[in-house]
């Protein structure tokens, strides 16, 4: 597989306008990519009362889609642009994600578990070590089995800010996730943004990534870029890890 697409980018993080989106497209072109997929953080169900600049609100979401369509038209013939979202898994957010999918024909819907986000605080209070990992993987399996996502983002991102992480102790759970992904025809992302986190490695970690080779999964590359200069982050290093 030749990596020519960045499937995970956030063009509205620095500039909530069309110029911000063009900055990402120009960066993709400069780095020799043939395709970039915009996957801004989708709005969370308003019932949560959750407010974070990382997530689009309802008004910004409409602007994001309009700008993405305009950008796709402008770069036609030079750069293929996919229009998608990164949507958060939480049982109370699934009906909202279903509505978003029904109302727009996304090219890609990446499913993510952001266990450090405030809307998980009540459920994860007091969970540490293996108990937290097991909880995260059980929720990830629910994400996959929901059928609402086309790909799985940064599988073991839950290990951020966690001292003890021994994936081998949870191999059965990881393999259950991969098996369910095959049934749901979901892709698995190799996310390079982890090199800038405390654990300084790709997501998922090398051991878990190798386990995935036992399953007939489509695999994608994602930089998780929140700045245009990070589009295609560590693409050459990631390329070497694809089967």
Explain what this protein looks like in three dimensions:
This protein is α/β, with parallel strands linked by helices. The protein has a single domain (5-239), classed as TIM Barrel, CATH 3.20.20.140. Helix content is 35%, strand content 15%. It has 8 helices and 7 strands; from the N terminus they run E-H-E-H-E-H-E-H-H-E-H-E-H-E-H. The chain has helices at 18-30, 58-74, 94-103, 121-124, 129-145, 171-184, 206-211, 235-239, and strands at 5-9, 35-41, 80-88, 108-112, 151-152, 187-191, 219-222. Strands 1-2-3-4-5-6-7 form a 7-stranded parallel beta sheet. Helix 1 (18-30) crosses helix 2 (58-74) and helix 5 runs parallel beside helix 6 (171-184). The longest helix has 17 residues, at 58-74. The chain is globular, with a radius of gyration of 17 Å. The relative contact order is 0.16. The mean pLDDT is 96.
Q: What structural class do the secondary elements suggest?
A: alpha/beta
Q: What's the pLDDT, averaged over the residues?
A: 96
Q: What is the highest CATH level, the class?
A: Alpha Beta
**Tertiary shape:** globular
CATH topology: TIM Barrel
Going by CATH, the homologous superfamily would be: Metal-dependent hydrolases
CATH architecture: Alpha-Beta Barrel
If you compute it from the alpha carbons, what radius of gyration comes out, rounded to the nearest whole angstrom? 17 Å
End-to-end Cα distance, whole Å, is 7 Å
* Order of strands, widest sheet: 1-2-3-4-5-6-7
So how many helices? 8
| Low-confidence regions | none
Number of strands: 7
Largest sheet: 7 strands, parallel
Summarize the helix and strand pattern as letters: EHEHEHEHHEHEHEH
Helix % is 25-40%
Fraction in beta strands? 15-25%
- Total domain units: 1
């Amino acid at each position: 597989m030749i990596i020519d697409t960045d499937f995970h980018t956030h063009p509205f993080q620095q500039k909530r306008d069309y110029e911000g989106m063009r900055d990402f497209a120009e960066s993709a072109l400069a780095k020799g990519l043939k395709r970039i997929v915009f996957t801004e953080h989708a709005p969370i169900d308003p019932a949560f009362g959750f407010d974070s600049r990382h997530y689009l609100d309802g008004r910004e979401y409409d602007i994001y889609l309009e700008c993405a369509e305009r950008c796709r038209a402008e770069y036609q013939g030079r750069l293929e642009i996919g229009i998608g979202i990164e949507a958060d898994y939480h049982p109370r957010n699934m009906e909202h994600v279903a509505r978003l999918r029904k109302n727009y024909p996304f090219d890609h819907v990446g499913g993510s578990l952001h266990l450090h986000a405030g809307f998980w605080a009540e459920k994860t209070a007091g969970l540490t070590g293996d108990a937290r990992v097991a909880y995260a993987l059980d929720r990830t399996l629910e994400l996959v089995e929901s059928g609402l996502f086309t790909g799985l983002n940064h599988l073991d991102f839950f290990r951020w800010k966690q001292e003890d992480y021994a994936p081998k102790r949870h191999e059965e759970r990881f393999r259950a996730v991969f098996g369910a992904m095959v049934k749901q025809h979901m892709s698995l992302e190799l996310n390079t943004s982890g090199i800038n986190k405390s654990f300084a490695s790709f997501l998922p970690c090398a051991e878990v990534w190798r386990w995935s080779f036992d399953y007939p999964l489509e695999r994608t590359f994602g930089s998780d870029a929140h700045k245009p200069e990070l589009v295609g982050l560590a693409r050459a290093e990631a390329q070497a890890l694809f089967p």
